[in-house]
Design goal:
Keywords: Isomerase, Magnesium, Metal-binding, Phosphoprotein. The chain has 15 helices and 22 strands. By secondary structure, the protein is of the alpha/beta class. Strands 1, 2, 3, 4, 5, 6 and 7 form a seven-stranded mixed β-sheet that branches. It has a five-stranded mixed β-sheet with strand order 9-8-10-11-12, sandwiched between helices. Strands 14-13-15-16-17 form a five-stranded mixed β-sheet, with helices on both faces.
Length: 460
């Protein structure tokens, strides 16, 4: 295998096809580089490593652990876990961490999500570029690879599910919830491992869908952001007469919700609901982060509950940086990533799910009635268009609205045009020749007109 690290080292993680693009040998080099770049300079004598249920994950994870141990670090291997369980271990043990997962990607992929002690993110600007450069130098000149430390670090095993579950439960009061029937679609991912532990003794009847851990994803992609992957959950919620449905992605760090009618609930509405609960838990004070394509509902609800909304770019590195800079208590994204100050500013779908269950179970109304307060405006969802020139196309759209008397424009992340009655955001993909459009309006007729109008400009 000839490794091309430019193809697998992304903005926030490592991700590629196994064994075509990377393998256990390369994983061991990443372990050694992670030790040198992230752990040793920070004075960490140990790291924590976990993995998902993909067939290649145990071998890649253990190879990484050996690579780090050869640099003198002790390695705590926690085995099968969700990504937020790895973040829990990094936070609770105050150790840098590595999670082996490719999230919702197909079975032949695998990857590494890295963090510093306390679950602080590692991305291109915070160590990942340096790790890549070091690994590339060793690949180019194997003789330059570092000699093993004497003595090497130790490898040890640690079970964390019970401690992880107890910590999450300490952050949400679920003591008074009424009995609920819920359907949970784990998509053969890590939700099948974590849901029974976290929700096991609550007054819930859990109807499991695809809880068998299977990294080949035999039933559907473990990507609930794609509506086709919610179809089974929606049908089962209706068939069971359930109160709620939950869907987790492959590494179970994102959580999607469908109501008792089987209708998908916007992640913006979930963000607003959880924001209101977190503000209440913090005495009606605090900053809440939302990215710029979440609904108008989010900042409105935050202000109504005494909080301060803060708008940021799309992407977890921006959310986490803003969380740290502002001391925010909570942050949410349209992609169903939910970030909590009391979870080391990291994202955890399971904690968001506990908030949803506590909110529903703490009052008598169905979830569709409860969430209507937080879901106020019609939205397009994200619409992708393939374009030959992202910049030129964006400039054409900007020019079309330049003379609109009520419009304001900003370029925080792509192009956002806002009026009192509607807004849209058009932003480029970092990895594909795509422009992504999100539109929201105060009524559906305006939404449909504006969406059609902008798409015609983009696709002409």
């Amino acid at each position: 295998m000839t490794a091309d690290l430019s193809q697998i080292v992304k903005a926030y993680d490592v991700r590629g096809v196994v064994p075509d693009q990377w393998d256990e040998h390369l994983s061991a080099l990443f372990g050694a580089a992670f030790a040198q770049v992230t752990a040793v300079p920070a004075g960490s004598g140990a790291i924590v490593v976990g993995h998902d249920m993909r067939p290649s994950s145990p071998g890649l994870s253990h190879a990484f652990a050996r690579g780090a141990a050869e640099q003198g670090l002790d390695v705590v291997e926690i085995g099968l876990c969700s990504t937020d369980q790895l973040y829990y271990a990094s936070g609770a043990l105050d150790l840098p961490g590595a999670m082996f997962t490719a999230s919702h990607n197909p079975a032949q992929y695998n990857g590494i999500k890295l963090c510093r002690a306390g679950a602080a993110p590692v991305g291109q600007d915070t160590g990942l570029a340096d790790i890549r450069a070091l690994v590339e130098s060793w690949l180019d000149d194997p003789a330059s690879a570092p000699a093993p430390a004497a003595p090497p670090g130790t490898l040890s095993r640690r079970d964390t599910p019970a401690d992880y579950a107890a910590y999450l439960r300490s952050l949400v009061d679920v003591s008074g919830i009424r009995p609920l029937k819920i359907v949970v679609d784990a998509g053969n991912g890590m939700g099948g491992h974590t849901v029974p532990t976290v929700l096991g003794d609550l007054p819930l009847t859990v109807v499991p869908l695809y809880f068998e851990l299977d990294g080949t994803f035999p039933n559907h992609e473990a990507n609930p952001l794609d509506p086709k992957n919610l179809v089974d959950l929606q049908a089962r919620v209706r068939a069971e007469g359930a109160d709620l449905g939950l869907a987790f992605d492959g590494d179970a760090d994102r959580c999607f919700v469908v109501d008792e009618r089987g209708e998908p609930v916007s992640p913006s509405a979930v963000t607003a609901l959880v924001a209101a609960r977190e503000l209440s838990r913090n005495g009606g004070h605090g900053t809440v982060i939302h990215n710029l394509i979440t609904s108008w509902s989010v900042p409105e609800v935050v202000r109504e509950h005494g909080g301060t909304p803060a708008r940021t770019r799309v992407g977890h590195s921006f959310i986490k940086a803003e969380m740290a800079a502002t001391g925010a208590i909570f942050g949410g994204e349209h992609s169903a990533h939910y970030y909590f100050r009391d979870f080391w500013n990291a994202d955890t779908g399971m904690l968001a799910a506990l908030h949803v269950l506590a909110a529903l179970g703490g009052q008598p109304a169905p979830f569709s009635t409860l969430v209507a307060e937080y879901d106020r405006y019609p939205a397009s969802g994200e619409i992708n268009s393939t374009v030959t020139d992202q910049q030129a196309t964006t400039a054409r759209v900007r020019a079309a609205y330049a003379d609109h008397p009520a419009a304001t424009t900003d370029t925080l992340d792509g192009l956002t045009v806002t009026t009192p009655d509607w807004w849209f955001n058009l932003r480029p993909s970092n990895t594909e020749p795509l422009l992504r459009l999100n539109v929201e309006a105060r009524d559906r007729q305006t939404l449909e007109r504006l969406t059609t109008e902008v798409l015609e400009l983009v696709r002409q």
